[in-house]
Every structure is written in C-alpha cells, then in structure tokens.
Amino acid sequence: MNRFVTASKQRETIENCKEGKVDVLIGTHRLLGKDIKLKDLGLLIIDEEQRFGVEHKEKIKELKASVDVLSLSATPIPRTLQMSLVGIRQLSQLETPPDNRVSVQTYVVEKNSALIKEVIERELSRDGQVFYLHNNVEEIYHTARTIQELVPYAKVAVAHGQMGKEEIEDVMMNFTSGEANVLVCTTIIETGIDIPNANTILVEHAQNFGLSQLYQIKGRVGRSNRLAYAYLMVPNKKQLSEIASKRLQAIKDFAQLGSGYKIAMRDLTIRGAGDMLGPEQSGFIDTVGIDMYIEMLEEAINEKKGIIKPERKEMVKANVQVDSYIPEVFAPDDFDKISMYQTIDRIESQEELRAYEEQILDEFGQLPKTVKVLFEKKRLEILINSEDVEKYRELKGQIEITFSKMFSAHVDGVKLFEILTSISKDITLRYTDQKIIVKLPQTNDGLKMAIEVLMRSKEAKKNEN
Description:
The chain has three domains: 7-85, Rossmann fold (3-Layer(aba) Sandwich); 105-257, 3-Layer(aba) Sandwich (Rossmann fold), CATH 3.40.50.300; 334-460, Transcription-repair-coupling factor, D7 domain (Aspartate Aminotransferase, domain 1, Alpha-Beta Complex). Helix content is 40%, strand content 14%. It contains 16 helices and twelve strands. The strands form three sheets. The chain has a six-stranded parallel beta sheet, sandwiched between helices. Strands 9-10-12-11 form a four-stranded antiparallel beta sheet. The radius of gyration is 30 Å and the shape is elongated. The termini are far apart. The model is unreliable at 273-286 (pLDDT under 50). Residues 115-269 form the Helicase C-terminal domain. It comes from bioreactor metagenome. InterPro entries: DEAD/DEAH_box_helicase_dom, Helicase_ATP-bd, Helicase_C-like, P-loop_NTPase, RecG/Mfd, TRCF-like_C_D7, TRCF_C.
C-alpha cells in the first residue's frame, strides 16, 4: 500500500484485510489511514523507524492493544534509544557488516566548484557513479545544468519526490543500468537504494540535515568492496551553529562500519531524550543531564515494578601513583574512551573485569602499557574493597596493606609468611591490634606485587571445616 497503487487496487486490498484474507500487509504511511482495518493484527514491523513520528506509531498500536512491535533502524531516534537504555524496550544489535565492505571515507568541506569537478571526475574515471544530493526541488534542475557544465562528458539525471511514479522508475532504471552516471537528487534516495557501482556522494547544505539522516544518506555508497567517499558540503564552516558542527563532527568521528548505534548515542547527547509519554522524540534535559536523567528514570520504573535496587557500596579508590589512561592512538574516538572509563569504573568483580578486558582486547587489539595499568589499578581496587582488607595506603617508598581482624583471626600465619616470602624477600609483616599489617617495597612493579600479595594471601586462610 502506497501512493503509487491505484485506488481500485487499494479498495480491494482494504476489503481483503477486513475479511482476514491478507496475511502480510506491506506499506508506507498509507497504512495509518482510518479506512485500514485488520481482522487479527498480531505483529507490527516498523522499518526505518526514525522516519516515523510518535503519533504514527501509537496510532498503529491502537489497532490492537496486544500487538508485538519490532522496530528496525540503523540509527534509533533518541526517545527509542532511551527506552531501550532504561529497560522499557529490548534492544538487539547487528554488529557484523557484510563481507568485503570497507568504511566510507567522510569529509566535511566548504562547497566549491573545483572540488565538485575533481570529485566527480575521479569517480567517473574508475567507471563509477555519483550521487549529488541537492534537497531543493525548485533549484535542482539548475544544479544539474551546473554539474553538466563542470563535467561535460558526465551523463546527468535528476530524481525528486514530486516526479510521477513512472518518471522516477525510468530515471532510477537508467541510473542502475549505467545509462546515467551522475544522479542529482533530493533525500528521495535516503532509504531503499542499493547501487553497488555508486561510490561517491556529495551532499549540499549538509548542516541542515539531522545526524541520523546524514548517516542514512552516507549509507547509499560503499555497498560493494570498493572504497567509497562522502563529501558533506557546507557554505562556510565558521558560520555553522554549535549543534550543526557537533553533528558533522560526529559523522566524521564514526566513519567505521556498524557505527549506527554510536551515532544514535551521540544524537541522544546532542538532542536529548524527549518525552517518555509525550509527543517529543527529542529534547534536552538541561537541569540534570542525560546520564542522571536516565538513571533517575530507571529507578522510578523499577520502583513501580517493585524492584528494589540494592544500594551500591561506594568503592574505596586506590591512590596509586601510576600512568593509567587510554591513549589517542589506541582509541581515537572520545565516545569510545568515555564508555571504557565509565564501564571500568562500574565493574565490581574480578570476573567482570577479566571479561571486559578480553572484550576490549578483541575489539581494539593489543593493549598498550597504560591501558594494562588501568585494568591492574581497577583489579587492585576490587581486592582492597573486599572484607579481608581494612586499609591500603602508599607511604614513602613503601606500600602498606592492613588486613581486617576477621581475616587476621582466620589465617595461618606461618603459611602466609611463606607465601609472602616467595613473592619477595623484601616484604615484611607484623601483628598489631589483632590485625596483620604487610609492608612491601614501592618499586616499578609495586602495583603487580600488591595485587599478587592480596590474591595469594587468600590461600593462607584456615579451613574451618
């Protein structure tokens, strides 16, 4: 069901839907019409969910209260993403790209004729095709003539949403078959276009597009094993608004394949989450910030569900004088860095830490020394926050670990002494106020030694059975 289907065919389909003769109904926004009645609707699948408004989606859900909804999107809108983050909706991700795909090379440039000419000629020289997006129907034919003058041997075609069905089909067939090699178009090509030979796209007035829309537009190229290029053209970089600059920078930052989720997260921070129950799908929460807002919302939802979140014990931080950070060469993207720092900070067990370290190793490759130290520092923090340890501190040239009274009362002192001596002969221990105090030298390997002392000291616990 769409605007190109004849009225008589639409009436026939509508009658069949009412009688339950149609199993699967596929359509555009036309499905939202008041005359569409389905006898037994069980599943609603919304493709390209970011193109639908809240009112559209809620209207479809009203058709049946118990309808299951599956929303598909490369870049979820802020409100939908927020709902998944707080547990209202479930979220699944497809992270593996098709075989032999390479990332689209993305550039933000000021518009100039020499660049346009060079870019188009370079793509045509390798027998490729070009999309030129000019989202103004009134000026689109003038733009097409300008490109024809810049590159006289180019075969230029035009496509926009105000053309008739047959005309659009003819243009797209010509472009797909290679009879045209430069398509000047509007955002009509944003979705549903798959032309592997088109591997360069130029976007005029890129500052006027939303983040998700730019990501979708960029996705029209790079659909084969050829290197693809996207040029986001702006009139003057200095005159861009702060939000437009952030959007364009985000598209450049997240150029790798499968970045839709990260783009959506950045969009969430730029635009805000919108209303949970109201019509706004975006909107910034200036007073508390997005992270705090989502945390508060999650607590409120859990409270309504009767789920009481146990209070998280504040972890004692290890004041260790070491270089522990994520370098630029390892994770160039700020979003990835912040995500890593936040995840490491939230981890509360050795098992979680080991699993996350393996995940980072798998995603980013060999860990630099400073990142390894970051994980070691967190490993130490988890150990000193156990009930066996009362205090950890670094003195001048020494590290001092004070074990708790409970641990000290249930440990085999001789065995503990043997274990510590096997680690280093420079380690000393004494028994004061019913607590065992261990001192070890502050060397270059002091952090690793402290971790080994804390981990292996558990071996000296008496077996009470």
